[in-house]
Automatic annotation (TrEMBL):
Compartments, record wording: Golgi apparatus membrane
Pathway(s) served: Protein modification; protein glycosylation
Named cofactor requirement(s): Mn(2+)
Membrane topology: Single-pass type II membrane protein
Name this polypeptide is given: Hexosyltransferase
GO CC terms: Golgi membrane
């Protein structure tokens, strides 16, 4: 009797396990069905259900795929707020200065929701050592543009730069950049502040920079200083196709560009970046383009020697991200001392 009773109990428990397994299986099937209809992510529920089911029975239960539902709910990356190309016009032999600028811009924190490319721009190489050393730079850094021109400052280099870009960056995209900035190689640009200034501005027919002459505040009266000015991409394309620009390339490059826009009735969206852009202070009483270093700075121009670069970088705390390590000890300041070895 006892054996028969134990047999009945075991059979009852088996029936109960089968019934429980069947109920859970049907519940999972229903969950999968509603997931496919409503695209609801039920991964957590599935995990709980599956663990309960496999703890009670060794029966293999088929699982439904919820990856598609999860993928459907994963937000796609947001496009950058702006895409900016900064072309630093320099000379092939300026190896040390280029390396400094790579450090200056490469160590600035990434700008949120913006793509900023810094490229060094010069004309054709004309020395054997350049052909080797510049080639190595390109192989390692891939940040150099070599224009088809003879090196110059005011005989058409800026025109060659802007007019070459549409073909260089031709692609299936409507435009590779929203803005292009032409910059000197003696200017320090704070990328985050520049992007913040550009984000709310129009993407079309834009001309942005430091108005000339120094006391001028109306961007429609004259032109922007060659220290660093920004054009929207449509103006870059216009320069490529315009006879106005093609037939007037010689002269002070910043003034010449202002003439193009004036004669072509372009650049209707003009913005003066003063006082956030200025020259390094050496004689404030005499030079009205200068200003004391300030927290609201976008760029500082005329950093013609190592002392000015170091003082500027110290003021803006360019090394604040340096991590402590047992491998080195870098004191915070050594006063105004600058090593006599110069990178400029």
């Amino acid at each position: 009797m006892k054996a028969a009773k134990r047999g009945d109990q075991q059979q009852s428990r088996s029936v109960a396990r089968i019934a429980l397994t069947t109920c859970l299986f049907m519940a999972i099937c229903l969950l999968c069905f509603f997931t496919s209809v409503n695209q609801i992510n039920l991964q957590h529920v599935m995990k709980l259900s599956s663990s309960a089911l496999f703890s009670r029975s060794s029966t293999v239960i088929p699982t439904c795929k919820l990856a598609s539902a999860a993928a459907a709910q994963t937000p796609s990356p947001l496009p950058p707020a702006i895409r900016l190309l900064i072309g630093v016009l320099t000379l092939p032999d300026q190896y040390r200065l280029r390396n400094l600028l790579r450090l200056v811009y490469g160590t600035q924190k990434p700008v949120a929701a913006a793509d900023v490319d810094v490229k060094f721009v010069f004309c054709n190489l004309n020395k054997d050592d350049q052909k080797t050393l510049v080639a190595l730079e390109i192989m390692y850094y891939d940040d150099i543009i070599i224009l088809n021109c003879t090196e110059n400052m005011n005989q058409g280099k800026t025109y060659t730069f802007f007019s070459s870009l549409p073909q260089m960056f031709a692609s299936s995209e409507s435009r590779p950049y929203d803005y292009v900035m032409k910059a000197d190689d003696d200017i320090y640009i704070r990328l985050e502040q520049l992007v913040e200034a550009l984000v709310p501005l129009p993407r079309e027919d834009l001309y942005y920079g430091f108005t000339i002459p120094c006391r001028e505040m109306n961007p429609f009266n004259h032109y922007m200083s060659g220290m660093g000015y920004v054009l929207s991409w449509d103006l870059v394309e216009w320069i490529q196709s315009s006879d106005v620009a093609k037939n007037h390339t010689e002269g002070p490059e910043d003034k010449v560009l202002g003439d193009w826009l004036q004669m072509g009735d372009r650049g209707k969206n003009r913005y003066n970046a003063k006082p956030a852009m200025y020259d390094y202070p050496t004689n404030l009483a005499k030079n009205k383009c200068e200003r004391e270093l300030s927290p609201d700075t976008i760029s500082v121009h005329r950093l013609k020697n190592q002392v000015k670069w170091i003082k500027t970088l110290r003021y803006f705390n360019a090394t604040k991200k340096l991590k402590p390590s047992k491998l080195y000890h870098v004191p915070e300041s050594l006063g105004d001392y600058v090593h006599p070895y110069s990178f400029i």
